UniProtKB/TrEMBL annotation:
GO terms for molecular function: ribonuclease M5 activity. The lineage of its organism: Bacteria, Bacillati, Bacillota, Clostridia, Eubacteriales. It comes from Candidatus Intestinimonas pullistercoris. One of its GO terms (biological process) is rRNA processing. SMART domains: TOPRIM. PROSITE patterns: TOPRIM. Residues 5-89 form the Toprim domain. Pfam families: DUF4093 (PF13331), Toprim (PF01751). Signal peptide: none annotated. This is DUF4093 domain-containing protein.
Length: 198
């Protein structure tokens, strides 16, 4: 069982059950779209974010991104990290049919995939004793524009190619992609590597 400092928010109880077999931390549910009308839950999420940090881990389908974006606007951005699961076609065992987009949700992910998603988001794993990373130059919106990944002709296609290459969800906007890239890459390494892909 992995212990992490940040609390985690997921969409529903099956996601919570799956994740609780991987990590030991506070895990809260949004009750799907219920979080849109639940001021008490939002207040609790804000408190947890301020106290210990918060990781948002939603499904990679359209509904998951609606919930993620709502939380993103309602919570302190400097205290929230975003974990993303990859797009994997399939259906969870408990369901009779796949979801609308035919993708596995958080509950359908293996423990290894969930751990990797949390590590990529920058979760603080307790007891691993790593020294703090040296400050590094962040990847910026200007970098994404210069690479043709936002704001220009064919940017959506180029970004979709990049998301597939990096095994990230297809619904990520440039604004959602930026913090993920910064969690995964040093700026210089990303620009060098991206230059070979584009």
């Amino acid at each position: 069982m992995l212990r992490i400092r940040e609390a985690i928010v997921v969409e529903g109880r099956y996601d919570k059950n799956t994740l609780s077999q991987v990590v030991d931390t506070v895990i809260l549910e949004t009750a799907g779209f219920g979080v849109f009308h639940n001021d008490e839950l939002l207040a609790l999420l804000r408190r947890l974010a301020e106290r210990q940090g918060l990781i948002i881990l939603t499904d990679s389908d359209g509904a998951g991104f609606l919930i993620r974006n709502h939380l993103k606007g309602a919570l302190p951005q400097d205290r929230v990290k975003h974990a993303y699961i990859p797009d994997i076609a399939g259906k969870e065992r408990r369901k009779r049919a796949p979801g609308k987009e035919g993708k596995l949700g958080v509950e359908g992910m293996s423990p290894a995939v969930l751990e990797e998603a949390l590590r990529r988001a920058g979760a603080t794993f307790l007891g691993e004793g790593a020294s703090p990373a040296a400050p590094r130059s962040p990847i910026t919106k200007a970098d994404l524009y210069a690479l043709g990944l936002s704001g220009g002709p064919d940017a959506a296609r180029r970004r979709a190619d990049l998301l597939r290459r990096l095994d990230l969800p297809e619904h990520m906007s440039p604004n959602a992609l930026l913090p993920v890239l910064n969690a995964l890459y040093d700026r210089e390494a990303f620009l060098k590597e991206a230059g070979t892909w584009m």
